[in-house]
Specification:
It is built from 13 helices and 14 strands. With 416 residues, the chain is of the alpha/beta class. It has 2 domains: 2-218 and 334-414, Zn peptidases (Aminopeptidase); 219-332, Alpha-Beta Plaits (2-Layer Sandwich), CATH 3.30.70. The structure holds (2S)-amino(hydroxy)ethanoic acid and manganese (II) ion (2 copies). The site of (2S)-amino(hydroxy)ethanoic acid has 6 residues, from loops.
């Protein structure tokens, strides 16, 4: 059997083929502002899925789809009795998505398969590339929903009932786009899982480092707040008689920003979605619906932040004479990846002559769910300016190719 290291040293993935596929997929769901918009289970997501499934089939992969719409392409190994090696990510996007978030990990996985096909190299373990449903959580909450169901963290029937921000029901959308698959949940029990992803943060770019060997991933807390006040005339209502949901809403936004300043460290907070009703210039808002995204690498500190917000909401409701209710949208504790796998990623980056560093993931990823069932780690490549969830999201082609070569080396080593 050829020496694995020698094979992967000599072999590079086909950069041109990878870049072409990334650009083609990025064109599916492109908006006028040049964003990539394929919200989970929409028509655009279906088109993206159909395209990537067709590429899997062209590579001779066996494609299976599970009841939550996760897609798996399998390239048979010489020892099918062994548990497979899995890589993959997601191809659903936020509304203002870039070309690489999620797409890159999936298409680099297919590029690894194409490269092994080019040299007729058969790995011992089967290689599986996964596409997980609704990683973004921008239309259905929680995020990473497909991989969460896959690892048994959420019951399938509960997930199928989840309502979208636009009122659609997840299970009905799966049927509508033809991805309510029949393959048993969790059919592929991976020996190990490696996810390749753009960093979506500024660290690698600022430090001029080419590869991130990801050690851990921060905890995430999502909630939707509904604040009910009283609509009234903006001109005639004395300030001390107002029950202004709009003011209460902006107080929450200011509070969570202050909270991150007070806590320091890795605490982050975002109010990303706000709807005021009736949303009119001369009417005091009767109702505000807003989302709060809190994250921290430390579970105890994340709980502390949640408690501080909760205490604030109680006093705010009291002082403004409004009612405030909270609906939990997502809650995942911080995850530590497999140190041995992270070491191998650093090793392969090194042997490919690529600068590398250990790091934490600020974003959620499907890997955090796969880590519940098998040794898992992640490879990051730089995001220019740290920009993501934005059409300006960019990673240099050379860096995308380097990341895919580290993936090739890591997967082929694990597959033996
Ligand atoms: O929110 C996240 O971190 C991921 O993009 N779903
Ligand atoms: Mn992603
Ligand atoms: Mn994302």
């Amino acid at each position: 059997m050829k020496d694995i290291e020698a094979m992967t040293q000599q072999r590079s993935i086909n950069g041109q083929r990878l870049m072409h596929q990334l650009q083609t997929l990025a064109g599916v769901g492109r908006t006028h502002s040049n964003a990539c918009c394929r919200l989970a289970l929409t028509e655009e997501d279906r088109q993206g899925r159909d395209l990537v499934v067709s590429w899997m089939k062209e590579l001779g992969m066996v494609v299976s789809i599970d009841p939550i719409g996760n897609i798996f392409g399998a390239r048979a190994g010489s020892r099918p009795e062994l548990a497979p090696i899995m890589t993959g990510s997601h191809i659903d996007t936020v509304r203002t998505g870039g070309a690489y978030d999620g797409n890159y990990g999936v298409l680099a996985g297919l590029e690894v398969v194409a490269t092994l096909n080019d040299v007729q190299y058969t790995t011992e373990r089967t290689l599986v590339v996964g596409i997980f449903t609704n990683e973004e959580g921008a239309r259905f909450a929680p995020d990473m929903l497909g991989s969460l169901v896959y690892v048994g963290g959420m019951a399938l029937d509960e997930a199928l009932k989840v309502k979208a921000t636009d009122g659609a029901v997840l299970g009905e959308e799966l049927i509508r786009i033809g991805y309510n698959g029949k393959t048993a949940l969790g059919k592929h029990k991976p020996h190990a899982f490696i996810e390749l992803h753009i960093e979506q943060g500024p660290l690698l770019d600022i430090e001029g480092i080419k590869i991130g060997a990801v050690e851990n991933l921060q905890g995430i807390s999502w909630q939707e707040l509904t604040i009910v006040g009283q609509s009234n005339h903006a001109g005639t209502t004395p300030m001390h008689l107002r029950h202004d949901a709009g003011y209460a809403c902006s107080s929450v936004s200011t509070f969570v920003r202050e909270l991150t300043r007070r806590m320091g460290g890795n605490q982050v907070a975002t109010v990303g979605h706000v709807v005021l009703t009736p949303n009119l210039i001369n009417v005091i808002a009767a109702q505000a619906t807003l989302t709060v995204d809190l994250r921290n690498t430390d579970e105890a500190l994340l709980r502390q932040a949640e408690q501080a917000l909760n205490d604030f909401l109680i006093s705010l409701a009291e002082s403004e004479g409004v009612t405030i209710t909270s609906r939990r949208l997502a809650r995942f504790e911080p995850v530590t990846f497999d140190a041995g796998l992270t070491d191998r990623i650093a090793h392969h980056a090194n042997s490919l002559g690529l600068s590398h560093r250990r790091m934490t993931s600020g974003a959620g990823h499907d890997a955090q769910m796969l880590a519940r069932i098998c040794p898992t780690s992640m490879i990051f490549v730089p995001s220019v300016g740290g920009i993501s969830h934005n059409p300006a999201e960019h990673t240099e082609a050379a860096d995308l190719i380097s990341g895919a070569n580290v993936l090739l080396a890591t997967l082929t080593e694990l597959a033996h």
